[in-house]
Design a protein that fits this description.
Blueprint: H1 3-27, H2 32-51, H3 62-76
Helix pairs in contact: 1-2, 1-3
């Protein structure tokens, strides 16, 4: 798997963790899934940034990587 897609997966998992934490807070539960999801997302983003041959990813790379992902999916069909 490409490091750009690992970075995107990590970046997109963090907002899902936030939604999970708000849901757990509203239900009065511990946000264990949210913490795990956030940790996994941050770990993926950091690993992908470290393994990138050109340097570290930044927030400005997210739109470009997202468009590249959608074009790869589009070309697969």
């Amino acid at each position: 798997m490409d490091t750009g897609f690992l970075f995107l997966l990590g970046v997109y998992l963090v907002p899902l963790a936030f939604v999970s934490a708000v849901s757990a807070w509203a239900d009065g539960r511990r946000p264990t899934v949210a913490v795990g999801l956030a940790a996994f997302g941050v770990a993926l983003a950091v690993i992908a940034s470290v393994l990138r041959p050109d340097g570290v990813y930044g927030l400005s790379d997210i739109p470009v990587l997202t468009i590249e992902l959608f074009t790869r999916i589009w070309r697969a069909f």
